[in-house]
Amino acid sequence: MTVRKGTEAQRHKGTKYKIILILFVGFSLLAQQIHAANSQTGTTTASFLKIETGVRPVSMGGAYVAIADDINAVYWNPAGLIQLSAKEFSLVHTAWLEKINHESLAFAAPAGNKFAYGLHVVYFGTTDIDRRTVTGTSDGKAKVADYYESVSLAWKALDNINLGATFKGLQMTLDNDWGSGYALDVGALQKLPLNVTVGVMVQNLGPKMKAADTSEKLPTNLKAGLAWRTLENKLVLAGDIEVPNDREMKLHAGAEYRFNKLFALRTGYEDVTSPGNCSGFTAGLSINEDYIDEILNVKMQFDYAWMSFGDLGSTHRIGISIKF
Asked: pTM for the whole thing?
C-alpha cells in the first residue's frame, strides 16, 4: 500500500510538471508572436477591447492577472473564477474621457468543486462626438456604440493550478457603419508557497474583424503577473507585465490594504503614454461587504476608482457587487 500511494503521488507530481511545462512553452510561443507583431503600432481594430473593466483592478493599476479572485476574473483572468465561494453579480459605470461612457454588467458562480462560469456584457459608446466633413466643417453628432458579450469557463486542473477561457462576441457601430467578430481569451493561475500566486493570460485571440470595407487584426494581448498576500491577507501587492501586438510593452503595479470590517484602500500605477503630471497613477477604495452586511443584512460592496491620463484628464469608475 505504501508503494502504491507513493507511485500515485509521483504520477500526480509528474502530471503537474507536464501541465506547467505545456503552459510555459505555449505562452512563451504566443509572447514571441505577439512581440514580433509589436512593430505594427495602430494597425488593430476594436480599440474598445483595450479599455479595462472593473473597479478594483483599475484602482490597483491594472495589476490583477495573478489576483482575479472575484467577479472581475471574467475580464482579467477566467482561471480565477475557481476562487469564487458564492454567486456574484456586479454593475460598473465608467465616466471615460471625452464624455464617453463605459458600462459593464457581469455574473459569475461556482459549479461544483472543479468548475466555475461567468457571463459578461460590456458597452462603450456616446452620441456626443462631432461629425466633420472632408473640409473640416461640423456635420452634427456621430453615434458610437461598441459592445461585446462573453461566456467564461474555469476548471481546477490540479490542486493549485486553474485554467480558464472566455469566448466573446463583438460588435462595433459608427453611425451607419458596423462590424462584427469574435475573440477568445485563455488564462492560467497557479498558487505557490508563501501566499504567492502567478497568472498568465492571452486576450483577444481570433481572426480579423471586418468593419465597413476593411478587415483588421484584433488587439491581441499577453499578460503575466505575480501577487503576494501578507499581513493575514489584509495587504496584497501585485505586478503585471503586458505585451500587446500594436504598441509597446506596459508595466503595472498595485497594492490593496483591507481594514477590518470597514473598507479597503488601493493604489497603483499603469504605464500609459499620456503626457502630463500624475499620468498613469490610480487610486480607489471600497466599503467591504462585511461592514454593509452588518448594516443592511446584504452581502454588498461599493467600489470607486480614479485613474489619471495626465493632460487628457481623468476617468472615474463606480461599481456595486453582490454576493448571494
From this structure: 0.83
- Residue 72: CB atoms within 10 A of its CB come to 31
Nearest to 238 by CA among 251, 248, 250: 251
Contact (CB, 8 A) for 150 and 126: no
Q: In degrees, to the nearest 5, what angle opens at C-alpha 146 toward C-alphas 309 and 130?
A: 65
Identify the three-state secondary structure at position 47.
helix
Half-sphere exposure of residue 37: CA atoms within 13 angstroms, side-chain side: 18
In angstroms, the CA 168 to CA 152 distance is 9
323, β-bridge pairs: 88
- Single-letter code of the amino acid located at 121: V
pLDDT in tens, 285-322: 998 877 677 777 778 899 999 999 888 889 999 999 99
Q: Please, are residues 170 and 209 in contact by the beta-carbon 8 Å criterion?
A: yes
CA 117 to the chain's CA centroid: 15
Question: Which residues, other chains included, contact 176 with Cβ-Cβ below 8 Å and sequence gap of 6+?
Answer: none
- Lookup: cell for 254: 498595485
Instruction: Tell me what the mean pLDDT of segment 97-102 comes to.
Output: 83
Q: Which of 139, 148, 193 is nearest to 50 (CA)?
A: 148
For residue 5 the three cell numbers come to 500511494
Which one-letter amino acid corresponds to residue 26?
Answer: G
Q: Is 298 helix (H, G, I), strand (E, B) or coil?
A: coil
Burial label, 289 (beta-carbon count in 10 A; 0-12, 13-18, 19+): middle
Q: State phi, psi for 223 to the nearest 5 degrees.
A: -125, 145
Question: What structural domains and CATH numbers belong to the chain?
Answer: 2-323 (2.40.160.60)
Strand 250-258 to 214-216 pairing: unpaired
